[in-house]
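Could you help me review a protein record that somebody else here produced? My question to you is simply how this chain folds and whether the tokens agree. Thanks in advance; the entry in question is below:
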Amino acid sequence: MGITTIVSAGLLCAVAGSALACDLPKLAVIPQKALIVGNDGPVRLAANAYFTAMQAYAACIQQELVAAGGDSTPDLVKRILVSRNNTAVAEAEFMMKLFETNVGPADPAAAAPPAAAPPPATPAR
């Protein structure tokens, strides 16, 4: 096993391990529209908590990307972190659509989906 393989594996484990410190929030339960009528308060609270936690999760992933070296992060590590961030964004957007369909307009301050991380920079060849 070469020294490069050992160093790369160690770096990947360190970055992946620290990214796991970012806790992906549990999905909010959003019942069918017919089951919510007149009782949307608890659903709104749960959804707001979810969206706030998802914003914190995305911010944590983005901080991990910066801590790993930003643009100089090894390509594989960068792709993993960006993928986690983008998956979180896609999940939050889906949950927002489901919420708006079943409950109605969301509180804009509490329900903004997290910002997507920029795509990994293409290394110059």
